Amino acid sequence: MVDFSALKVGLKGQASILVGEAQTAPRVGSGRVHVLATPVMINMMEAAALDAIEALLPAGHQSLGTQLNVGHYAATPVGMTLRATAEVTKVDGRTVEFRVEAFDDKERVGDGTHSRPTQAQPKFMTDSMTKNTNKPRLCFIGFGEAGQAIASGLREAGVENIAAWDILFPHAEGAKLRQAGEAMGARLATSAADAVASSDIIVSAVTAASSVDAAKSVAPYLSGNPYFLDVNSVSPGRKQESARLLGGAARYVDVAILAPIHPKRHKTPLLLAGEHARTVLPVLIDELEMQGVIASNEVGAAAALKMIRSVMIKGIEALTAECFIAASRAGIADEVAASLRNNYPGVDWPKMVEYNLERMASHGIRRADEMEQSAITLAELGVEPLMTTGTVTRQRALGELGRGDALRTAKTQGRDAILDAINAATKKH
């Protein structure tokens, strides 16, 4: 008997899209006004519902959207982000019912209900998926967290031809990277030149400081005019430099990863920019099951959004650390969290504090490197990066502490344990 017990009331999912001309009513064919088309909003509601339950479905089963009863109440112009949410309200055997809502940057624009029954995949679909090998050949330059996450997701989606190269592969510190590649069945290349051989799509996922070097390492060995997806968190100017360096040898695409790479891995939302973005996006969606939208035809547009939003996102992390380190030393961490809840009732502060501290302890050094690129972005725009410079310092300091045994152990044990470990390592007596 098939076990559906993992499907429970309260499960939540979401999906978002940057509204471009392709998502407007005239382009979709549902109207004449250049605002978000209702069918696109409905599609995002379905995607949010699928996001809530897809990972919990029994093996060999799929969820099918069969009924929607929704209203679309307000227009969303091009340039805004539409965010759809879904929450499971009822599970009746194989059928799951949802409350769905859609919001743009200003207000709620739609809501309603949605039903999705679950059924076994037809055998011909399972057979065809196992037989389909006509997928692009990919290689990854840089095989850290992002590269591994995307590659492992693609392998599970049936992409067979994946090569990987990282400058750490020949060294002892690259052992874990090699093991990860071997475990997922990727071909471990012996060099950048070996990795890009016969590749249709090259994914550059290195450290911020190495993005241009990564492009240089492959430039002499490119053939067949492959796509070069630069997913690195660097400034628009750095992306433009890499694009100029590759010239006509590759079809360069500026890519920004707009959410944590886990748990969605290759399905994490992407923002694409550059003259080749429109031609590669259908390949990513149709052949690789990835998700993305177009920001602009100009290289650097996706990077600009990523870098500028990081000022806020990683800045809040740094402020969280600074605030609650002080609060813990004063013995008022709970009181500060309660006070913040009064001002921001929609935020689960205990959860946010723990999450932000863990992220900084685990990835603060890399995030500091990325924030240096945000500072460069601000400087390119004529904005002095006063707050961002402070974020760099705080992120790097906590990332360095996170390399120590005490904090590495504590970061899985909750807010108070993390704060105690930080204070033990830094408090002056």
Polypeptide structure, described:
With 429 residues, this protein is of the alpha/beta class. It folds into three domains: 12-123, Hotdog Thioesterase (Thiol Ester Dehydrase, Chain A, Roll); 132-299, Rossmann fold, CATH 3.40.50; 304-426, N-(1-d-carboxylethyl)-l-norvaline Dehydrogenase, domain 2 (Orthogonal Bundle). 45% of the residues lie in helices and 20% in strands. The chain has 15 helices and 14 strands. The protein has helices spanning 25-28, 38-53, 123-131, 145-156, 175-184, 192-196, 211-218, 236-246, 277-288, 301-330, 333-343, 349-380, 386-401, 405-410, 415-426; strands at 12-18, 61-63, 67-72, 81-92, 95-103, 108-120, 138-141, 162-165, 187-188, 201-204, 227-230, 251-257, 270-273, 292-296. It has an eight-stranded mixed sheet with strand order 9-8-7-10-11-12-13-14, sandwiched between helices. Strands 1, 2, 3, 4, 5 and 6 form a six-stranded antiparallel sheet that branches. Helix 4 (145-156) packs parallel to helix 5 (175-184), helix 10 (301-330) packs across helix 15 and helix 12 crosses helix 15 (415-426). The longest helix has 32 residues, at 349-380.
